[in-house]
Design goal:
The protein is of the alpha/beta class. The protein has helices spanning 40-50, 69-76, 94-100, 120-130, 162-166, 191-205, 241-248, 254-270, 297-306, 328-334, 348-360, and strands at residues 34-37, 59-63, 80-84, 105-111, 133-138, 157-161, 172-176, 221-222, 290-293, 312-313, 317-318, 337-340.
């Protein structure tokens, strides 16, 4: 029997039934501004409407190092992205932001890369001083608390991705400090997609490699986002009934703990090859994946795939509105590292497999 193929995202087949909690659902699922959508880009688009952004040539400060789908949602909402360059720590450069602000600037978009929280409190205060709204992109993050506020709790709006974090067939979460939009988008049943995702989880446990992981190593390139492109916005709608049901049956408390434990084990071996912002497992971090710097990404990823470990570049698509020539450091970040799994569905022996595969590569 073949060893399981270790995907970047947790298998749906490994979800843990929810435990009863005397304190109720965790943040943000009990927040008055919480809503569940099919995709994070739909949550972001609707969240922007909830705070009155878009449609009047308004500008938003946006990291040039981004996945593209959030930029598409901003453009769809009628906002004009004003990009800021990537720094070595991936924190915004305050001097650069001051130069970008104009009378039309309404908000700052802050991305919590790979589940490692930015200094939200600092940027909340910075926005308040200038009368700007703070938008938190938490698509990589999980809102654990501990000694700090949960990631996404200080922005005017925050969005999360359940498909990445929990392996659900879809799911984007909106938390808005303002009144949620008044009209509910359509909610389908979603049973077929849930069964397909469950089936994929079963066959990858038997060693099957998904077709998208057999394709050539993608190059970083600027793309036009047509209706069939994977970054296409599509029709905004709520998450399916099947996704909402699966979410209600999951034990959410153990997600961050398992991811942090798995990440720490790999970090012990590869700390010197991890990009600086992800070299310390900070308080509040819930790692989405494990990043490792490589100079020969296609060869390393191919060797890892042959050993049953998913390894891909992070964000190979560049949104068409990004003036690439003006942001060389952001472009360099796109090419700097590959990522491997650390999700909560991995057992201890799976993490050892990832470690050994990296050592052999």
């Amino acid at each position: 029997m073949r060893a399981p193929y270790l995907e970047l995202w947790p298998p749906l087949a490994a979800f843990t039934p929810a435990r009863r909690s005397a304190t109720g659902p965790p943040f943000p699922f009990a927040d008055p501004g919480y809503r569940l959508y099919a995709k994070g880009r739909h949550a972001l688009w609707d969240g922007l409407r909830s705070v009155g952004l878009g449609g009047r040539d308004e500008e938003i400060l946006v990291p040039a190092f981004n996945c593209g789908s959030e930029v598409e949602a901003l453009v769809r909402a009628g906002l004009i992205p004003r990009f800021y360059e990537a720094t070595e720590t991936l924190e915004p450069d305050e001097r650069e932001l001051r130069e970008l602000i104009s009378p039309r600037t309404r908000a700052l978009l802050l991305i919590h890369y790979l589940g490692f929280p930015q200094e939200s409190g600092r940027w909340r205060a910075w926005c308040d001083e200038r009368g700007l709204l703070l938008v938190e992109d938490c698509a990589h993050a999980w809102p654990i608390g501990g000694d700090r506020s949960p990631v996404g709790s200080v922005g005017d709006i925050a969005v999360y991705s359940l498909s990445k974090t929990l392996g659900l067939p879809e799911g984007g979460v909106l938390r808005s400090k303002h009144a949620p939009p008044g009209t509910d988008p359509e909610r389908p049943l979603g049973l077929v997609a849930a069964l397909e995702r469950y089936g994929q989880s079963i066959v990858t446990a038997l060693g099957w490699i998904p077709p998208e992981h057999r394709r050539p190593f993608p190059e970083v390139r600027q793309v036009q986002i047509g209706s069939t492109h994977q970054l296409a916005f599509g029709r905004a709608r709520q998450a399916s009934s099947a996704t909402a049901f699966l979410l209600s049956r999951m034990d959410l408390a153990h997600v961050a703990q398992r991811r942090r434990t798995n990440y720490a084990e790999l970090l012990d071996t590869f700390a010197d090859r991890v990009p600086l912002p992800f070299r310390t497992l900070s308080i509040g971090a819930c790692p989405l994946v494990f990043p490792i710097e490589v100079s020969n990404g296609p060869q390393v990823a191919d060797r890892l795939r042959r050993q049953g470990v998913a390894a891909r570049p992070w964000w190979s698509f560049l949104h068409p509105t990004l003036p690439v020539d003006r942001f060389p450091r952001a472009l360099a970040w796109h090419r700097r590292f590959i990522v491997v799994p650390v999700h909560q569905g991995l057992r201890h022996r799976d993490v050892r497999r990832v470690r050994d595969a990296l050592l052999d590569s």
